[in-house]
Structures are given as structure tokens and as C-alpha cells.
Amino acid sequence: MHESNPPDTNTLERLRAIVGEAGWFTGPEAMAPYLREWRGLFHGRAAAVVSPASTREVSQIMAVCHEARIGVVPQSGNTGLCGGAAPDETGTRVILSLRRMNHIRALDAANDTIVVEAGCVLADIQAAAREADRLFPLSLAAEGSCMIGGNLATNAGGTNVLRYGNTRDLVLGLEVVLPDGRVWEGLTALRKDNAGYDLRDLFIGSEGTLGVITAAVLRLYPRPRDQVTALVGLASPEDALAVYTALRRESGDCVSGCELISTPAMDFVLRHIPGCRNPMQQVCPWYLLVELSTPREDSGLQSVLEQTLARLMDEAVVSDAVVAGSLAQGAELWRLRESIPEAQRQEGASIKNDISVPVSSVPAFVREASEVVAQACPGLRVCAFGHLGDGNLHFNLQQPPEMDGRDFLTRWDALCRLVDDVVLKFEGSVAAEHGIGQLRIGELQRSKSPVALALMQSIKHSLDPRGIMNPGKVLALPDEESRDNPD
């Protein structure tokens, strides 16, 4: 894999001519928002930020950078959690921001599809779908600022994966600019197409290391017309799994959200987020936020939910439960879950783990991983929360109250390795929905087989032989030792 070069003055002027003054940023103040990922873990420098207004301009930019061997860092909303959209410290890369490519090109309600450009904010796509009496189900805490290009590049998950799948499952076709500037025009709206390899899935989740996604054809769904939400108090994750299983069965598989929340996570929210309150009459070791929905009006879902929870309370599976009486009350319950990341930041330093295991293994994983990290760092608080229904947990570790936050963060690699060992024991994934970026390169190297890593390197070299696409992300260079795996 070749190392990219710093751009010379002539190359920078060629790039500037492509995007014009509206898409050209080089001063420190102008570039600052593009150089730092929002959590502050990664901060770099860049030779320039270019923001094209069309696929044609992206193609021209990539052709110039390919010719000059200049590293390119694609960026959409820059809300990622693993440093995948942040440049390195060399200052030799060009950041390619897709913010100006923010048009909804078409919406076909009869075909249940919408064609969007990579710079469209996720919330705007959701709103366009609602106006057409449809649902685009991808939903994230950052949906007001994240952009679909980044969602596609990381195969984002979110709270509706249980019912509708990851971002990959919501895409029919893509438009992608390759590293050499060629454009793959794959904006198909077909549900069935077995004509050769599925190139779409090659680029979704590749984090900008294989090409630049410029547009996509997304699936739409009937808009829910009956929706009910409840917060359930429980003694253990085993009980949470029992509630989830019962609700799937009794509702005819209408569970669209199923979020596990630990006591520390709930406590952080109640302590730091104004206006949030626990509607329970008692404090419970665990909570489960569940939502049932269907496109059918007056489907009786609320009755199903209430009767199922009442039966489970009689069986001592459920300790307490609050069923929302309106959509507004349901939104208040969801605010408890969605506020956890912000509350964590205010509580101090935390070490993030974005893992997944088989749904049936979640309780055993939580128990074993919690014991392991508690032994390694006494006083540490496990802030576990996330998508029980698809086995994806944010198994976050909060600093002990008496420990300095900076000292705690020096244990990041060691504690993550302990968690990863438990994840792999249960045949899970160390990167469930946030991607690899810069943060988890070592974890990927440890968790994937040599054959899998060799295949990934082969694909990377085939599409990007000059190594200019998002250098230093996802895959370590063949001759590069991982920072997390020095053995």
C-alpha cells in the first residue's frame, strides 16, 4: 500500500478551481469544525477542506488527488464516535466535506423509495418521508446533525434496528465516486437484482476507505399509526430478555424498540439532565424501554402491552412498569434513554465499548464482563445500555468517583481488551454499530481471522491501490503494527 503525498501549490489551486470559493476552506478558523471529532478524542490537521456541490465535482476532486497521490478524508456530519472522519496530524490530507450535497433528488411513494444525496441531514430525510405519509426508520440520537453519507459509510444502527435492520438493510442502490474519479452509477430502485456481485454492500460500512458515497436510494415504509411505549423496572437482564420474548410473541412481532438501561445510566440522566425524572415508584436495578408499533390504526397494541406486563408482574418477572398514555409521554420516556450519552459526559471520563453478542447471551455477557472490569479497576461503574433486541450494548465504563479522569483514560486499551475477550468468548463483535475508524483498528486486528483480514486488504488494494482513501482508518497497513496489539 503506497503512502499518500502532501499536496503542492499547483494541486491545491486545481482543487480550489473545481469547488470555487463557496467550497474552499484553508484558514485555521474556517477549517476548525472539520478537524475535530465531536467527542474530542481525535483532532488533526489538513491541507485544505473542499466541499463539492455535485457528484461531478467529487469525481474531479478524486481524479486530481489520485493523480497527485493525495490522501482524502471523506466527511459528512462529522458526528462519528471512532475518529473515522477526522484527519491525522500530518496536515497533508484533504478533507472532502459533502455538506453542500444535501438535495433530495426524488421520492417515489408507490415504490416506497427516496433518492438522497450524501449531505442530507437524517432528520430532513425523515421529515420528507413523513410528508409523503411514509417512514424512513433509521433513528439516532444525532439525527438532527448527522448526515446520511456518514450513516451509510458506518452502516449505522440506532433504535429501530430490531424492526427494520441496520442502514445496510434500508438501502437499494448507491452512487459512488471511486478513488480514481470514476463514478459507479448504482442508483437502482430494484428489490431483486442478482446480476453479479452486490457492489452496494461493499461500500456500506467501509468508512470512506474504498470510495466516496455521493447518493443513495433508500427504502421507505408505511408510517406507524398505532404506537405505545412503556418503561419497565426489572431485577436483571435475564428478566429483560423474558419481557422482550413475551412481547414479541403476544404482539405478533410488533416490537419496534427494546432498550436496556442499567441503574448507573439512569442515575446519570436523572442527576445531570434537566427535566428528566424517573416515573417509577421504586428504584430498580435495571430498566427496559419498550415500544410497540404497527401501521394499523386501533390495533389494540396498548391492551396487549398492558396485559402482558400485568401477567409478568404476577409472575415476578417485572417489578414495576409505566405505560405512556400519549405520544408526548412516550417521548418523555425515550428522552431518558437518548440523554444517556450527554449525561455520561457530565459525569466524568468514560471508556466506550460498542459490542454485540447473540441476544440470548446478553445477560451472561453483562454479568461476566462486569465482574472482569470490576476486578481490574475497583470502584469503576458499568454504564451499560442499548439495543437488547439486536444484542448490541454500549458497555461503557465510568471512572471511579475518587479517580482522576485522565488517569482512568490511560486504562482504555487494557480495560477494552478485557471486555473484548468476553465478547469473543460469546462469539460477538467488538464493533457493533459505530465502526472501526481510528479507535478500534487494534481491536479489529485481534478479533478477525487472518483470512478475513487478508480479504479486506485485498479489496482495499484492488479499489485503492495508491492508498489515498481515508488513510489510517479501519485497516492497519500490511507492515504496520497495531497500537493495541504490539505482540
Explain this structure to me?
The protein is α+β, with helices and mostly antiparallel strands. Helix content is 36%, strand content 20%. The chain is built from 17 helices and 19 strands. Strands 12, 13, 14, 15, 16, 17, 18 and 19 form an eight-stranded antiparallel sheet that branches. The protein has a five-stranded antiparallel sheet with strand order 5-6-10-8-9. Among the domains are: 226-341, Alpha-Beta Plaits (2-Layer Sandwich), CATH 3.30.70; 348-425, Alpha-Beta Plaits. Helix 13 (362-376) packs antiparallel against helix 15.
Shape: globular
| Overall CATH class of one domain | Alpha Beta
Structural class: alpha+beta
CATH fold call of one domain: Alpha-Beta Plaits
SS field, number of helical segments: 17
- State the end-to-end CA separation: 22 Å
| Beta-strand residue fraction | 15-25%
